[in-house]
Amino acid sequence: MKGLPAKYELFEDIFSGTFFLTGVTLIFYGVIMRYIFKSPVFWVDEVSTYVLVWGAILGWSIAQRDRRHIRVTILYDKFPVRVQRWVSIFSRTLSFLFCLFLAYLGLLLEIKYLVSHQVSINIQLPLWIAYFFVPVAALMLGLRYIVELRSLLKDKESEWIKNRLEEIETGGSGHS
Question: 15: closest CA among 125, 140, 106, 127?
Answer without folding.
Answer: 140
